UniProtKB/TrEMBL annotation:
<protein>
    <recommendedName>
        <fullName>non-specific serine/threonine protein kinase</fullName>
        <ecNumber>2.7.11.1</ecNumber>
    </recommendedName>
</protein>
<dbReference type="InterPro" id="IPR011009">
    <property type="entry name" value="Kinase-like_dom_sf"/>
</dbReference>
<keyword id="KW-0808">Transferase</keyword>
<dbReference type="InterPro" id="IPR028082">
    <property type="entry name" value="Peripla_BP_I"/>
</dbReference>
<keyword id="KW-0723">Serine/threonine-protein kinase</keyword>
<dbReference type="Pfam" id="PF13458">
    <property type="entry name" value="Peripla_BP_6"/>
</dbReference>
<keyword id="KW-0812">Transmembrane</keyword>
<dbReference type="InterPro" id="IPR028081">
    <property type="entry name" value="Leu-bd"/>
</dbReference>
<keyword id="KW-0472">Membrane</keyword>
<feature type="binding site">
    <location>
        <position position="38"/>
    </location>
    <ligand>
        <name>ATP</name>
    </ligand>
</feature>
<feature type="transmembrane region" description="Helical">
    <location>
        <begin position="317"/>
        <end position="338"/>
    </location>
</feature>
<dbReference type="InterPro" id="IPR017441">
    <property type="entry name" value="Protein_kinase_ATP_BS"/>
</dbReference>
<keyword id="KW-0547">Nucleotide-binding</keyword>
<comment type="similarity">
    <text>Belongs to the leucine-binding protein family.</text>
</comment>
<keyword id="KW-0418">Kinase</keyword>
<dbReference type="Pfam" id="PF00069">
    <property type="entry name" value="Pkinase"/>
</dbReference>
<keyword id="KW-0067">ATP-binding</keyword>
Length: 776
């Protein structure tokens, strides 16, 4: 979405997406402030054009629900500022949708609880109690004062601002429901997020205040345990108490909130507030005070002595029994120890080889289809690999384009051999896809899975199948280090493929030094005094000097002289690209008229553009990370008038391709693009494997990295050790087949820039295409 809506709302960055549409951080030009714009798309089961009367009915219902939403005024709920509908753009590929609906809401600066949990790990009991109290007061307001039910409470829909205040966001499930005429309630995608949503909500049997209380409790147990909610639900029951010890009073309250039947839960947020203060009994069947002989239950404050008495009784009476049980347990565990789990990180947070699903469900995939992936993963964790294969094959028949499931399927087949070759693959997975895209992780996984599928379909390497253990590194330095340390200690894992950014590979590198090889598909910062990597790190994307060379040749060809650089400070890739580009600018005697820092602020971008225009810049070079590129690239392109925009890798975004710009306006240097070799073996196999040939440079480079690892394994001549793998890759004669060129490494471990690697792309008809002009 790149147009200015209603002449005032300018989308800056896509921050969410789902079955109904997209969410953008935007700029309100009238009020001169940030806001959130939700673009909603009506849907029906038959993907047909809505009739005029249907659209009028949808419009009326939308306005009624939006007005109700606008009337909600609470200091911890983002205010709805505006709502409207507009015709879909003419270039929309989804012609059955003729109208788009918009909600404009207050923008809350802060961090969602899922991101906070990912950074700090599990919350203390005191922290959860404090947060629970805040959220119960919000629910008390909406349930009692406004008769509104949220319907989708979860970690990613709660934001904490810098003052510690929690905001409940993404109201509007009722609004979305009105955009689904004729769709049965149980098939609605406005029914909340599976596993967080209570059974009655998913079954379409009614929504109650206690439905929100169920979702709030599911959120709290994630915070208490530090685990993904999927790990806390097993065989149709919550098992969260196995992972954390908390006060019995709080635990009982949460369990009652999580009751399967709505009538067994608390009726209101007020009742829970009272329970937490010890004012009411926790027994669902208890009578009001004075109504009978039912004894009072102890509150949090008077349980200490009670617990002490219980502990003494346990030691006195049950210790002998415990010793007997311990001996029996050891006898039971001996066979298990002789045949340990196939996964080296069985049920460890952030890891999976098949026993857990790391990438959240795409909202466009139905629960019924996704259930087969969940069943396959459960069977995998139980070592029932034949059953896992059946479920995963069934799932992939309905959702072919899922690389995680493809890897798990191949892993299940490899596990049956009892002697696979294990490689770790690391990707930056975002835990909640509704609050951030996992495009990068999935694009990399497709490259890994493509090679694994080819190898295993052809009986593996000397009869041994390839087994990939997925590690979700996230984006935080601490987690990246922890994941690297964990992998390095597992001697069964021969090597590692992954690490998306130069910052992440630099953070992880010390853990692997002199221990095991890592092949990064996508890191491109130039190795120098500020960016050092050890000899065990190999990279298959040529470094930034190659991209800078292609961009300067474009500038020279078009006789452009005055150049501005917009750059992100303190980011390794951006700093390296800026340095390499500047060196060739000076070498070609071009004029650098402006260097301008951009981090996240729209004001920064507009100030940089103003300076560039004042100094008559003919070219703006973008040196950004992915994060800043998503925020700033589209805005710069739209506001730069006749200035040519250049970049490398990170502005290669769908939002950029959808901008209405001249083909001569933009050039981006990337490692590979599909239209450069439309009939290649790689693309033909991609169509067969994923149902599409529309794969990008991240997938291609991940394929090349995996091909290099496989070739190195072959060259160990059956002596599969970490050291032999390193020696094979370090050999000057090493070469592996890549998508468009051989993979060969220089003395540093970086890929030699052979012909066929690297292209310039431009935008034509809202798609990236290769610029086939020769600029040599």
């Amino acid at each position: 979405m790149t147009v200015i809506l209603k002449t005032r709302y300018l989308p800056l960055e896509q921050i969410g997406w789902g079955g109904f549409g997209k969410t953008f951080r935007s700029w309100d030009a009238h009020l001169q402030q940030q806001c959130v714009v939700k673009q909603l798309q009506p849907r029906n089961t038959f993907r047909k054009t809505f009739s005029h009367s249907e659209l009028e009915s949808i419009k009326k219902s939308f306005e009624e629900e939006a007005r109700a939403l606008r009337d909600i005024k609470h200091e911890q709920i983002p205010q709805l500022y505006d709502y409207f509908e507009l015709p879909a753009p003419n270039e929309s590929q989804e012609e059955f949708r003729k109208e788009l609906f918009y909600l404009v809401q207050e923008y809350v600066q802060g961090e969602t609880l899922d991101k906070e949990l990912n950074k700090k790990g599990r919350f203390s009991e005191a922290e959860v109690l404090q947060d629970l109290g805040q959220l119960l007061n919000v629910l008390k307001y909406i349930h009692e004062k406004k008769q509104v039910i949220h319907r989708d409470i979860k970690l990613s829909n709660i934001i904490r601002n810098e003052n510690g205040t929690l905001y409940l966001i993404d109201f509007g499930a009722a609004v979305k429901r009105k955009l689904e005429p004729k769709i049965p309630v149980e098939q609605s995608i406005a029914m909340g997020t599976p596993i967080f949503a209570p059974p009655e909500q998913l079954a379409g049997k009614g929504i109650f205040p206690s439905s929100d209380l169920y979702s709030l409790a599911a959120t709290c147990i994630c915070l208490l345990t530090g685990r993904n909610v999927n790990e806390l639900w097993n065989q149709n029951r919550w098992i969260w108490r196995e992972y954390v010890s908390v006060n019995d009073n709080l635990a009982d309250i949460l369990d009652r909130m999580l009751s399967y039947q709505p009538e067994e839960r608390y009726e209101s947020a007020e009742q829970i507030i009272s329970a937490l203060s010890g004012e009411i009994s926790l027994n669902p069947n208890s009578k009001p005070s004075g109504a009978g002989e039912e004894p009072d239950y102890p509150t949090i404050s008077d349980r200490t002595s009670f617990h002490s008495q219980i502990n003494r009784l346990i030691k006195k009476l049950f210790l002998p029994i415990g010793l007997v049980l311990l001996g029996s347990a050891i006898a039971f565990l001996i066979p298990w120890l002789m045949h340990p789990p196939i996964c080296d990180f069985q049920n460890k947070n952030g890891f999976s080889c098949g026993e857990a699903i790391l990438i959240p469900k795409n909202p466009m995939i139905s629960d019924a289809i996704f259930a087969d992936k969940e069943r396959g993963s459960t069977a995998f964790g139980q070592k029932d690999f034949n059953q896992a294969i059946l479920y995963l094959q069934k799932y992939l028949a309905s959702n072919q384009n899922d690389p995680e499931a493809r890897i798990y399927l191949n892993n299940a087949k490899a596990a049956l051999t009892n002697n696979p070759l294990k490689i770790a693959v690391t990707v930056p997975i975002i835990d909640d896809q509704l609050n951030g895209s996992n495009d990068i992780a999935e694009q990399m996984l497709r490259g890994f899975a493509h090679v694994q599928d080819n190898i295993n379909q052809n009986k593996g390497i000397n009869g041994r199948l390839l087994f990939l253990e997925i590690a979700s590194t996230g984006w935080e330095k601490k987690k990246i280090r922890q994941i690297a340390d964990a992998i390095a200690t597992q001697e069964n894992i021969l090597g590692v493929i992954g690490y998306y950014t130069s910052d992440s590979i630099q953070e992880a590198a010390p853990a692997y030094d002199s221990k095991m090889v890592v092949i990064s598909p996508t890191s491109t910062a130039v190795r120098d005094s500020t960016f050092k990597l050890n000899n065990y790190i190999f990279r298959v994307s040529p470094d930034n000097s190659a991209a800078a060379d292609k961009l300067i040749k474009y500038i020279v060809y078009h006789n452009l002289n005055k150049i501005a650089i917009f750059y992100e400070p303190n980011e390794t890739f951006a700093a390296s690209l800026k340095k390499e580009f500047e060196s060739v600018v000076w070498d070609k005697k071009k004029q650098l008229v402006n260097e301008c820092r951009v981090i996240q602020s729209t004001t920064e971008v507009l100030n940089c553009l103003r300076q560039a225009k004042e100094r008559n810049a003919e070219v703006i070079m973008l040196a950004f990370s992915d994060k800043v590129a998503r925020i700033a690239a589209t805005l710069i392109i739209n506001q730069s008038e006749d200035i040519t925009i250049l970049g490398a890798d990170t502005p290669y975004l769908e939002t950029v391709s959808q901008t209405n710009i001249s083909p001569d306006k933009l050039r981006i240097a990337i490692r590979w693009h599909r239209s450069n070799s439309a009939n290649s073996k790689f693309e033909q196999e991609s169509v067969k494997l994923w149902g599409t040939g529309d794969v990008n440079w991240r997938t291609a480079m991940s394929y090349d990295a995996t091909m290099a690892m496989v070739e190195a394994l072959k060259r160990t001549q059956g002596n599969y050790t970490r050291q032999r793998l390193y020696e094979a890759l370090k050999n000057h004669a090493f070469s592996a087949d890549g998508v468009t060129a051989k993979v060969e490494f220089n003395d540093l471990g970086d890929r030699k820039p052979l012909p066929g690697i690297g292209v310039l792309v431009k935008v034509e008809n809202n798609r990236f295409v290769v610029d086939k002009t020769s600029y040599n």
